[in-house]
Specification:
single chain, Rossmann fold, alpha/beta, 5 helices
Length: 225
């Protein structure tokens, strides 16, 4: 059980406390980890939340990937530790090489903030516990650079290795293959653009994000070799 969750904070992060609240409300014990520290403490899982790390200068996540904590997160992931990157966190994971591809500006060059329906494509990962392929979720997005891109070879590999976690049912940003989230090969590292921490109560318009966070809490280390 991943009860203790570290939520990383960079200068410019703005979703860390929403994430902490969601984790705590769903039975976990969350604490904020500063990007300049390298000690992860005794956490069982890591969340890199949304926001604008280092102001998104150069590229989203391009500076954040050099923070001392990222080396520790990379080692944690190599050992099978659960790591979830949400929105800007997904961008950081791609810049750090923990996930393939990149996120570029939305098609139409518009900031998007709205509810989106996504569909589970793969459940063999840290957010798929208890889910079924084909399950539909209503989760909000809030991004300007959520257009996932990768080479044709990488897309083929993601499909062949069952690493596409979510697809949009009505692609809002131009992402290749309608991709809303992917995982690494073992499934212990997941990046997604929608915000599950903002969908944990019907007062917020949806509670579909609760199952994803509960899945993270239930996930233990996944063998990576």
């Amino acid at each position: 059980m991943s009860q203790r969750v570290g939520v990383v904070r960079f200068p410019g992060t703005n979703c860390e406390f929403d994430t902490v609240d969601a984790v705590n409300e769903l039975g976990g014990q969350a604490k904020v980890l500063w990007h300049g520290d390298s000690d992860l403490g005794d956490v069982d899982a890591i969340v890199i939340p949304g926001g604008f790390a280092h102001g998104d200068y150069l590229r989203c996540g391009a500076i954040a990937r050099f923070s001392p904590i990222m080396d520790s997160i990379a080692a944690f992931a190599r050992n099978g530790g659960p790591v979830l990157g949400i929105c800007n966190g997904f961008q950081v994971l791609t810049e750090a090489g923990l996930l393939p591809g990149a996120l570029q500006k939305n098609i139409g060059l518009k900031f998007l903030c709205c509810m989106q329906q996504i569909q589970f494509v793969s459940t063999t990962n840290i957010v798929g516990v208890g889910a079924r392929v084909g399950d539909l979720l209503s989760i909000p997005i809030n991004h300007f650079e959520g257009n996932y891109v990768c080479s044709e070879d990488t897309l083929r590999q993601l499909e062949e290795e069952n690493r596409i976690v979510f697809r949009y049912t009505d692609n809002p940003n131009g992402s290749i293959g309608d991709i809303a989230g992917i995982s690494n090969e073992p499934g212990n590292v997941v990046g997604m653009m929608p915000h599950p921490e903002r969908a944990t109560s019907m007062l917020l318009g949806s509670n579909d994000g609760s199952s994803l966070i509960q899945s993270l809490l239930a996930a233990g280390p996944i063998p990576t070799a």
